[in-house]
Amino acid sequence: MKMYKSFPGLALFIAAAMVMLLAGGSAEAKVRVVTSTPDFAAIAKEIGGDRVDVESLAKGYQDPHFVDAKPIYITKLNRADILVYNGLDLEIGWLPILVTGARNSNIATLNSPGNVDASRFLTTVLDLPTGPVDRSMGDVHPRGNPHYMLDPRNGILVAKGITEKLSEVDPENAGYYEENYRNFEKRLELKIAEWAKELAPYKGTKVVSYHKNLNYFTRWAGFEDAGYIEPKPGIPPTPSHVAALIKKMEAEDVKLVLASNYYPQKTPRIISEKTGAVFLSLPTSVGGEDGINTYFDLFDAIVGQITSALESRSGAAESGSSMHNG
Amino acid sequence: MALITPTWYSLNDPIVFAENDPENTGVNMQEIEVGFQSVVDPYFRFDSFFSFRTEGVELEEAYGTTLFSIPLNSQFKIGRARAKFGRINQIHRHAQNFVTLPIVVAEFLGEHLNPTSVEASFLVPVPWYLELSASGGSPDVETPTFGRSPDANNLGNLLYIFHMANFFDVGESLGVSLGASFATGSNASGPDERSNLYGVDFFAKYRPLKDNPYQEVSLQSEFMWRQAETPEEELEDYGFYVEGMYRFAKRWNTGLRFDFTDTNTPITEEEDHDHEHEEEEEDDHGHDDMLGLLGRAYRISPMLTFNPSEFSRVRLQYDYLNQDYGPNQHAIFLQFQYAIGAHGAHPF
Prior knowledge:
The structure holds two protein chains of two kinds. Helices cover 43% and strands 11% of the residues of chain A. By secondary structure, chain A is of the alpha/beta class. In chain A, strand 5, helix 7 and strand 6 (224-228) form a beta-alpha-beta unit. The longest helix of chain A has 26 residues, at 174-199. Chain A is globular, with a radius of gyration of 24 Å. Residues 23-27 and 320-326 of chain A have low confidence and may be disordered. Chain B has helices spanning 103-109, 269-272, and strands at residues 7-16, 26-39, 44-53, 56-66, 74-80, 116-123, 129-138, 159-170, 174-186, 194-206, 216-229, 234-249, 252-263, 297-309, 312-323, 329-341. Chain B is globular, with a radius of gyration of 20 Å. Chain B has a 16-stranded antiparallel barrel. Chain B is mainly beta. Residues 1-5, 13-22 and 271-288 of chain B have low confidence and may be disordered. The longest helix of chain B has 7 residues, at 103-109. The chains are: A alpha/beta, B mainly beta. The interface between A and B is large, with 55 and 59 residues.
C-alpha cells in the first residue's frame, strides 16, 4: 500500500482543521462604514460622529480609476454595514470583484440594504453623452462624468443620502445623525457662499485641465473649459495634441492649467512654460495632500490655491512682467 | 437595460519562430474569450467564459457564486471554474503577463485546472486577509496530472483541492501574498492510480502611490511538487517559475521570467506518447498532455508590453528553452490583444 493512498482520512483532517480555525465574529455597537474614496469617508464622519467607524479603501492622492483590488480590502468589506461608493462606473475596474469576495449580504448587490451608490443622490450629472459613444472616443463614461464630488453643492446632497442610510441601518441614533446633518449642511452652505465670493472676480476664467475630472468644479466656479491635456479620456497627451492645445491657449489667452496631483506633471508644466499660463497641481480629494482632512479643507485648498495664483498673475500682468508658477 | 453584458477578450496573432517545432509557427489565433457575467438574483451571481480556439470551443468556466452571508464567512462556488490552486491558474490568459504559460504550470495543470466542482471558501477573521478553500469535483477537462477515474462511485477518486491564501500590506506601497495548495485525485492512468500535487505561491507588488503612481514592480513565483502513480511506477516531478515585472510608464511594462522543471523519474517518449492524440491540443511546451516528465528543462523569457489603452495590448516576447532530452529552442512571439464590451475587473 502506497503511503498517499490513505486519502479520505487526510481530506477529512484538513477539512476539520479548517473549520476549527474559523472563529466566530464579534459583536460591535458602532456602525461600520466603508467608502471607496476618502470624500465619502469624510462626509460619513461628519454625519456619523462617534457612532460610526469609517474607513476609505482608496487614498486621496490616488487616481480613483486605478486602484489595486487588494485582497485586504475584501477583509474590510466583509465587516461593513454600509458601503458608500461613487458609482457612474468610476470604480468599475476594482470594486465589483471585491464586493463579490466580501461574502456580505449587507452590501453584496445593488439591492442590498447597505449598498450605497452615492451618484443616485445627485440632481445633475455632467457630460452625459447625447449621441452614440464608443471607445474610439477614449474611455468615456457612458453614464456621465463621475467626478461630482468636486462640486461642493453635491457634498450636501450626498450627506443627506448618507444620513438617511445611517438612520435606516441604525434607527436608534437617527436623531443624532439628523442633527449632525443639519449642522454640516449649515456650515457647508456658509462655506460655499464664502468660496463663491472668493472666486467671483475670476468668473469666466478660461481653464485647461489634464483630465475631465475637474469639470464639476470649473462649472460651479464659473470657469470656462478651454480644453484638455489628454486628447481623449484616459489617453496620454501626444506631441501634436499638445502643440495644437498651446496654439489654442495662446489664441484664446488661457491663463490657468489645472491637474489633479496624481496625474503626470511634466506635460502640464511644459504647456504652462510655453504659454505663460499658471499651472497648479491640485489635491482633488480629501487626503490628497497632508493637512486636508475634511471636505471643507479640500475646497479651502483648491479655492485658495486658484485664487492666490490668479491674483498674483493679474498683479504680475499689471506690472508688466510675466509670472511662471512652479 | 441589458443585465448581461458580454465581455470579449481576444488574444491574437502570436507570431512564432521555433527551431524544431515547425508546426507551431506562423500566425495563430490563440484564443477568443467571451464572458457572460451577471447577478442572478439576490442570492447568486453567475460567471461564464467560453474559449474559442482553432481547435474548438471550451467552456472554460461556468459557475454560480453565493452572495449572501453564510456562517463562518463562507462562500460557495458551484460549477466549472479555474481551481484555486496556486496563483496563475486563477488568472485568465488575457490577464497573464506572458504569452506562454510557465512550463511547470503547462506540465502539471495543463492549459488550466478547471474541474467541475463544489468549492467552499472561508474568510478567516484575522487582521490580514486569510482565505481557506476546499473543493471536490471531477476534472472533466482532462489535465496531465488529473483525470476522471473509471470508478466514479468511489468518492475518494474525485479531485480534491485545498488552498490557503494570505495577503497583507507592508507599509503603504507594498502588498505581499503567500499561498499554499494541495490537490489529490485520480490520474486516469489506471482504476486506482492517484496523483498528489503540492504547491506554494508568492506574489509581491510595490507601487509607490505618492511618488510615482503609474510605476510598479512585482515579483511572482510558484513551486510545485507532483507525486503520481501509474500502473508501472511512481513518478516524482517538480518545478518552479519566477517572474519579475516592471511597469515603467502608464502604458508600458517589461518583465523577465525564469522557468525550471525536473524529475526524479524521467520517462521515455514512447511510453505515453500515443499518436492518436496528435490532433489534440498541445500545451505550450510542445508535447501532449502526458503524465511524467522527460527530463530537466529550463526557459528564460524576456517580455515587453505596450498598452495603447486599457482595452488593447501589444506584446513582444522571446523564449529560450533548454532541455536535457532534446534540442534547445528559440521562439519569438508578437501578440495582439483586444477587449471589447463591459469594462472588466483587474485582478490584483
